[in-house]
Every structure is written in C-alpha cells, then in structure tokens.
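Researcher: I'd like a candidate sequence for this fold, 221 residues long. If you have to choose between options at a position, lean toward the conservative one.
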C-alpha cells in the first residue's frame, strides 16, 4: 500500500485451451482474435475452469486468508500473462489492518502476500490471478505483489525476520517463473510508472534484501 506522492511486458504464453478456443472461434466464422487475447479469455468459455482447491497456497510457508474477490481478477498466469516481476510494498499499518483492508470489497486493492514483522507469511490471492496492487494494469498483470507490515518512516518496523522471510518468498517466486534476481525485476511500489505511492520507502535496505534473495535462490527449497 504505502504512503502517497506525486518495460517491456513479460512474454505471454498461449495455453492449449486457448488454442482450442481459437479453433472454435475461427470455425464459427467470428473475427480472429490476437493469440494473447484468446489466452486471457480461455477461462470464460462455458465449462472451462482451471482446477482450484479452496485454501491452496503457492508458497509452502504461507497461511491462506482470502482477499475479497473485488480486489483481484481471475486469470491463468503465466499462460495468459507472463510473470516477470515482484513488487515490494509496505502496508502503512498493522498486519491485521492490511488483512482487513484486503478483505474489504470497497478497498479495490490487495496484494498476493503479506509478510508480518515476525516473518509469518499470509497469502491472500493466488499467484495465477491478477491482484490490484501496483496501481498500473500492465504491472498488475505481470507481477506478484508482496506487502510488508509497518510504516515507511519507521525503520524499526523492517525486522530481520521480515527481510529473511520475504527474501525466501521472493526467491521461490523468481525460481518458479524464471525471473532474474535483480533490481529491474524486483522493484518497489514507488518504481511503478504512474504510481502515487512511496513504499517501501527510504529505510528499505535494498542491498541487504537482494543479498538475502540471491542467497535463498541458491538454497534448496
């Protein structure tokens, strides 16, 4: 979330279902849609739904707490939108207040994960879905958002436990989607074009964080 202030898109793969839909559309004589648009629309076809299990998480160390479905969009990433980025946020509040906000349909925003100051990780949106977290549609579609409990002007909120837990989470995300571990692909909310947020703020230790991510990236899960 963070305090307010005044790329190249990831590769989009087309899944088998999208190609089948494309064949059906062509056979019916409808207008030809772009391949990436077909991929985005596959799940809307009658009877087509990617298998999902209630409460399932993408990161083994996370606890599932569902965000309001008004704060994210169903998708089939990375088949419809390539994931090539992690966006780092700071909540500007407590862990509980962030969870409450993400469960509020009127909030209109939520991140995939929240990392608490003690290192606990909560997942609120599946990585395959598009979370409204970055304030930029393209970046929402291509990224995973991670919130961190605290305030941008309180360096004491950025605990070692939080850095280490978040770095392990980011390392697993990078491994899963083959995202380079660098500052072009792991960015702060403030770096998203068009954003009016300043998080994770000047106290966020990027050198430390990236070192921890790289170390976790080379450590077996």
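Model: Candidate sequence:
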């Amino acid at each position: 979330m963070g305090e307010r202030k005044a790329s190249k898109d990831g590769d989009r793969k087309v899944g088998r279902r999208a190609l089948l839909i494309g064949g059906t559309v062509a056979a019916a004589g409808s207008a030809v849609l772009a391949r990436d648009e077909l991929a985005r629309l596959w799940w809307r076809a009658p009877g087509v739904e990617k298998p999902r299990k209630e409460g399932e998480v993408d990161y083994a160390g996370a606890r599932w707490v569902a965000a309001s479905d008004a704060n994210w969009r169903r998708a089939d990433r990375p088949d419809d939108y390539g994931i090539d980025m992690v966006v780092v946020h700071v909540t500007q509040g407590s862990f509980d207040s962030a969870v409450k906000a993400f469960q509020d349909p009127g909030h209109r925003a939520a991140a995939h994960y929240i990392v608490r100051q003690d290192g606990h990780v909560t997942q609120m949106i599946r990585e395959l879905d598009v979370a409204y977290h970055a304030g930029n549609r393209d970046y929402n579609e291509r990224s995973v958002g991670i919130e961190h409990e605290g305030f941008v002007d309180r360096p004491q909120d950025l605990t070692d436990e939080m850095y280490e837990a978040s770095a392990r989470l980011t390392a697993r995300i990078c491994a899963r989607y083959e995202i380079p571990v660098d500052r072009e692909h792991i960015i702060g909310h403030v770096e998203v074009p068009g954003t009016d947020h300043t998080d994770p703020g000047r106290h966020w230790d990027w050198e430390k964080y990236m070192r921890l991510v790289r170390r976790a990236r080379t450590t077996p899960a």
